[in-house]
Amino acid sequence: MTKDVFDCMRECHSVRSFQPDPIPDATLGRILEAASWAPSAGNLQPWYFYVVINSELKHRLAEAAFEQQQIEAAPVAIVLMADPARSNERYGERGAQLYCIQDTAAAAQNMLLAAEGLGLGACWVGAFDERRVQELVEAPPRLRAVAILCIGYSDEPEDEYKERFSVAEVTKLLH
């Protein structure tokens, strides 16, 4: 049973402490499938997902991410890579510089919501040495590392929801 998507959006938060329990293959598969359903410019789907379970590799990824230990602590770390060349073919420089990053970020958000809906915790890591991460996962040089998602069963106490700006504070309605 999964949560309602609106509950997932409201309850989703960064988890940095994980239980050591592995994620079942079927559950991980559903999270990856959710990513593949993300919208993308021209339906080009300019993303690749490098699923890291190996402890030593997660340790080296944590080092490349300025010692963010949640990468090592999570049972799974997923490196999301964007393919600028794929977006460039149809949309030129704007596709290569922006659309492929937006598209891959949408896939990451789908993964976070799917993880939350399936009872897992997750953390989006964006601060890392991009070139080093690319080398560690042996990605082709044309790909750009956009995010590292740490996913597992939370080992943190229940979190209270963080305050958000009201819709009125961040919205301008134009008639």
UniProtKB/TrEMBL annotation:
Coiled coil: none
Cofactors demanded by this protein: FMN
Keyword annotations: Flavoprotein, FMN, Oxidoreductase
Keyword Endoplasmic reticulum (UniProt): no
InterPro entries (UniProt xref): Nitroreductase (IPR029479), Nitroreductase-like (IPR000415)
Keyword Amino-acid biosynthesis: no
Domain Nitroreductase: 13-72
GO molecular function, one term: oxidoreductase activity
Family: Belongs to the nitroreductase family.
Record-given protein name: Nitroreductase
Native organism: Lucifera butyrica
